[in-house]
Amino acid sequence: MIRFPPVSLIGVPTDVGAGHRGASMGPEALRVAGLGEALQARGLQVVDRGNLSGPFNPWQPPADGYRHLQQVVAWNTALMHATAAELAAGHLPITLGGDHCLAVGSIVAVAQHCRRAGRKLRVLWLDAHADFNTSQITPSGNVHGMPVACLCGIGPRELTHLGGDSPALKPDEIRQIGIRSVDEGERRLVHEFGLDIYDMRYIDEIGMKRVMEEALDGVDADTHLHVSFDVDFLDPGIAPGVGTTIPGGPTYREAQLVMEMIADTGRMASLDIVELNPAFDSQNRTALLAVDLVESLFGKSTLMRG
Q1: Helix or strand or coil: residue 226?
Q2: How many angstroms separate the CA atoms of 149 and 210, rounded?
Q3: Which of 157, 213, 296, 299 gives a 20 to 30 Å CA spacing to 226?
Q4: Active-site entry in 173, 186, 230, 272
Q5: Is 48 one of the annotated binding-site residues?
Q6: From 15, 86, 99, 127, active-site residue
Q7: Radius of gyration of the chain from Cα atoms?
Q8: pLDDT, average across residues 34-44
Q9: How far apart (Å, rounded) are the C-alpha atoms in residues 15 and 64?
Q10: Per the confidence metrics, is the pTM higher than 0.85?
């Protein structure tokens, strides 16, 4: 049985990077769905740090290509420091988002932690979107479509250098799974940077088991595995509670296999749960599903193993 360190829940109730209001309610929806209790029932030591505080969403149009950049930086700075503190204490931080712009803060902290410890980093980005946009190629200016680009050194200096160094991530440290919505300009950038993307066409062709074997190849005892779980990774037929539904995502069983294979490595050391939007949900159905899948990340198996 895999032994996990103490788990710290960090609520980040903001939707400043998103195109729809509502992701700010995600942390509470996950708590109502029983995330902390479910992990405790699995024998984990869980502490809920409550919610970080930050600026209100001003709901303004883009300025110089970015919406709410000042507010996005403030929230990500707070999350970076909170995540760094948990990692330094030997805890496993779980970001309760909030929109996906927050991955800049959490992953910058993780990358710095890995550099200090001399460990390898592998990021699994479970998402319908590549999130590799820039202000030049997205008309919306929504920063939740830009975090991977920012982490790889493309974007506003306030985010690309959030932790002081840029880039926080090398393209070969990230694997993107479930992708099925990529803008045309974004597609060119993704190819230019050589991102490792397992899109739904590839998943359909070779199956989720082989995809996960490839995505996890090279993960060993010296690897810190960070999972950034955007709930819109899932097919909207089973997970309607997101602001940007993209049909054709992984089924429940495929998603369970993803989580179980990650758990089997025993290397997950930090996690984001983002883009849960209760305003688009029905009776907290999507949050309950997210909790179920996160339990699988921590070793709950739907299979009868001897």
Answers
A1: strand
A2: 27
A3: 157
A4: 230
A5: no
A6: 127
A7: 17
A8: 97
A9: 19
A10: yes
Structure token pair of residue 284: 């907290």
100 an active-site residue?
yes
Amino acid making up residue 27? P
- Residue 138 is predicted with a pLDDT of 85
- 127 is an active site residue: yes
How many other C-beta atoms are found inside a 10 Å radius of the C-beta of residue 248? 15
What is the rounded average pLDDT for all residues in the chain?
A: 96
235 belongs to an annotated ligand binding site: no
Q: Is 222 a catalytic residue?
A: no
Q: Are 83 and 110 in contact (CB under 8 A)?
A: yes
Distance of alpha carbon 234 from alpha carbon 290, whole angstroms: 10
Give tens-digit pLDDT for 245-271.
999 999 999 999 999 999 999 999 999
Q: Which tokens hold the place of 11?
A: 């609520």
Instruction: Tell which wins on pLDDT, 173 or 3.
Output: 173
Look at residue 298 and tell me whether its pLDDT is greater than 60: yes
Cβ(189)–Cβ(130) below 8 Å = no
**Domains of the chain (ranges plus CATH)?**
7-297 (3.40.800.10)
Rounded to whole angstroms, the Cα distance separating 170 from 245 reads: 29
Q: Counting beta carbons within 10 angstroms of the beta carbon of residue 58, is it exposed (0 to 12), middle (13 to 18) or buried (19 or more)?
A: exposed
User: Chain-centre distance of CA 167, in angstroms?
Assistant: 18
Tell me what the mean pLDDT of segment 121-142 comes to. Answer: 95
pLDDT for res 306: 39
Q: Are 160 and 153 in contact (CB under 8 A)?
A: yes
Residue range 14-24: average pLDDT? Answer: 97
**Whether the predicted pLDDT of 23 surpasses 80:** yes
Catalytic residue of the set 15, 86, 99, 131: 131
DSSP E strand boundaries for the chain: 7-12, 46-51, 92-97, 120-126, 174-179, 196-199, 223-230, 268-274
